[in-house]
Design brief:
The complex is a heterodimer of chains A (400) and B (106). Chain A has 400 residues and is an alpha+beta fold. Chain A is 41% helix and 22% strand. Chain A contains ten helices and 16 strands. In chain A, helix 2 packs parallel to helix 3. With 106 residues, chain B is mainly α. Chain B is elongated and about 55 Å long.
Chain lengths: 400, 106
């Protein structure tokens, strides 16, 4: 005995105000294997159809109270869960009338007087369409379920990525806070700050090429490598080692490790810095990244630091220049991704720009690292008026 | 359960059996139209009767009867559109209906 169940027969509604013609059409449709119900008028038919379960409607055109055309129009006006194929029984040959009927939602016509062979052929055509529709509906359900699961997974990934970001924190007299808004659920920008040992505060902001899940996963792997290299270099450093040499060493080793990671075509841009917490001397390396911006105590305005270098992940033998700078109390240092300055305004192709960013940072400077991050987030959201095209990341460092 | 062919034959028999009554009802309705020639609703009812007969006759094995009924139905279209009707306007219709009844044996 086969375990395969036959599909349930399709359900049809036949409508005609002539009882004998109604019985004839019912017999014809039943002979094709349909489960058939019958109604003698359009209004009763509409009420029955709204109860659901029907795949086929075969209706006479001219009936009192509600004719077949009005019935089809009403069926189309209230879409059922599944498509109802409408066949109109008619003696009409007027082209305008037939066009009007099709525009009202009639799928096919069967001419009167009825010929069983013609009705059979029309019903076979109806079954082909209904099979296509059922297949499409099933595929849509699968896609909807898959999309729902994907959305849930991405939302979880988004929450996890946000949790991995370091919270606002102070290291002695230095306060750091960051801002990260992915352009999608997850993104490839990252920032971090930590103390690898006691002497130095390490901080960086990186931007992995591309967007979305792949970039986000690469960002996790890259962060792990960079943090490990930082610890190795800093902990092995001598007391006299200048921070400039150390940052070059870190980025150089990280670059070689990154190139040995999965051959995926990724690269990243990076600003990496070490701040000597004793002396207040900082060193930064720029690897293809927008320049860090520095505001010194007693001086107005933020100025860019450093010189651009190659991004990480391009050339194994690449090297970078280090920029050393003193950060006395009252200094403010800001690292940012190009998603900030290249953010386009709503409705026009004008970028936020470095000039606008520097003015904003100057205005927010007195509010500390938290105030700077809040001001930038607010300004960009007002500028963009909606979701961002690129990941937005910013790291504010305030020396107390 | 009756086979499909048996059901069809039974329906044909039923249709033929009720044909004389249909034709009489049409005659009665025509008389009502002649008595009140300006009554559009009465005329539309007769039109409907002929339309139903025309649509059903061919389906039940009487195509010529159906064509005749259709011709009379189209003739009624002209009467329905006429601005004023007189009882004599229905005489051709009476003749046609009598011919139809004669063909149907009613």
């Amino acid at each position: 005995m086969s375990g395969v169940q036959e599909p349930a027969p399709l359900k049809a509604l036949v409508v005609d105000d002539d009882p004998l013609l109604l019985a004839l059409v019912v017999a014809l449709v039943e002979s094709r294997g349909y489960r058939v119900e019958a109604c003698g008028d359009g209004e009763a038919a509409l009420a029955r159809l709204h109860e659901g379960g029907f795949s086929l409607l075969v209706t006479d055109w001219h009936m009192p109270r509600m004719d077949g055309l009005a019935l089809c129009r009403a069926v189309r006006a209230r879409p059922a869960q599944a498509y109802i194929y409408c066949v109109m029984l008619t003696a009409a040959v007027d082209e305008a009338a037939l066009v009007a009927a099709m525009e009202a939602g009639v799928d096919d016509f069967v001419a009167k007087p009825l010929r069983p062979a013609e009705l059979n052929a029309r019903l076979r055509a109806a079954e082909r369409v209904l099979a296509l529709e059922a297949g499409l509906a099933a595929r849509n359900r699968e896609l909807s379920e898959a999309y729902g699961q994907l959305s849930r997974d991405l939302e979880l990934a988004r929450a996890l990525q946000q949790e991995q970001l370091p919270p606002p924190r102070s290291f002695r007299h230095v306060r750091l806070e960051g801002l990260f808004v992915p352009s999608s659920f997850v993104g490839g920008d990252l920032y971090a700050y930590f103390v690898p040992g006691e002497r130095f505060l390490a901080f960086y902001l990186a931007d992995i090429s591309g967007h979305g899940v792949a970039s986000a996963m690469m960002a996790v792997a890259a962060q792990h490598q960079l943090d490990e290299v930082t610890h190795q270099v800093v902990l092995a450093a001598g007391a006299a080692d200048p921070p400039g040499r150390l940052v070059q060493e870190v980025v150089g080793r990280f670059n070689r490790r990154f190139l040995r990671m999965a051959d995926s075509g990724f690269y990243l841009t990076l600003v990496f810095g070490l701040l000597d917490l004793e002396t207040g001397r900082a060193a930064l390396v720029h690897a293809g990244h927008p320049p860090a911006l520095l505001a010194r105590p007693g001086r107005a305005g933020f100025v860019p630091l450093g010189s651009p270098g190659l991004p990480v992940g391009i050339l194994e033998q690449a090297s970078w220049e280090a920029c050393e700078v003193d950060l006395p109390g009252g200094s403010s240092l800001v690292l940012y991704s190009d998603g900030v300055t290249e953010c386009e305004a709503a409705g026009r192709s004008e970028a936020f720009g470095e000039e606008r960013l520097r003015r904003l940072l100057q205005d927010a400077r007195d509010r500390g690292a938290a105030g700077v991050c809040g001001a930038v987030r607010q300004a960009l959201q007002a500028w963009r008026g909606g979701g961002f095209q690129d990941d937005v990341a910013l790291l504010a460092l305030e020396v107390g | 359960m009756a086979s499909f062919q048996e059901r069809l034959l039974a329906l044909q028999r039923d249709w033929r059996a009720q044909l004389p009554q249909r034709l009489q009802e049409m005659r009665n309705q025509l008389a009502a139209c002649r008595a009140a020639p300006q009554d559009d609703e009465s005329l539309r009812l007769l039109h409907r009767m002929l339309h139903t007969l025309a649509g059903g006759a061919g389906s039940f094995g009487e195509p010529e009867l159906g064509r005749q009924a259709r011709t009379i139905e189209h003739g009624l279209d002209g009467l329905l559109a006429a601005p004023a009707r007189q009882p004599r306007d229905f005489e051709p219709l009476q003749q046609a209906l009598d011919d139809l009844a004669g063909r149907a044996g009613g």
